Amino acid sequence: MKRNTSQPLLPLRKEKRDDTAYDLYPSFHLLDGSIQNGYETLAEELILKKKVILDGYIGVDWEEVIGSLTSLLEKKRCNVATFNIADFLMPEAEILSLVRPFLGGDDPIFGYRTDLELLDYFKKEKLYNLEWDQNADLNIIYGTGAALTLMDGFLVYFDVPKNELQYRMRARDITNLGISFPKDAKPMYKHLYFVDWVVLNREKKRLLPHMDIVVDQQRPKEPTWIKGEVLRKALNRMSKSYFRVRPWFEPGVWGGQWMKDQFRDLNQNVPNYAWSFEMIVPENGLLFESDETLLEVSFDMLMYQEKENILGRAVKRFGDEFPIRFDFLDTFKGGNLSVQCHPSPEYIKQEFGENFTQDETYYILDAKQGAQVYLGFQEGVDQHEFKQALENSYNTKETLEVNRFVQKFPSKKHDLFLIPHGTIHCSGTNNLVLEISATPYIFTFKMYDWQRMDMDGNPRPLNIERAIQNLDFEKKGGYVSENLISKPAIVETGSDWEKIHLPTHRLHFYDIYRYDFETTVDLITKGQCHVLMLVEGEALELKGGDIPPQKFHFAETFAVPAATESYTLINRGRKKAKVIVSFVKDEAC
Question: Do 215 and 225 touch, CB atoms closer than 8 A?
Answer without folding.
Answer: yes
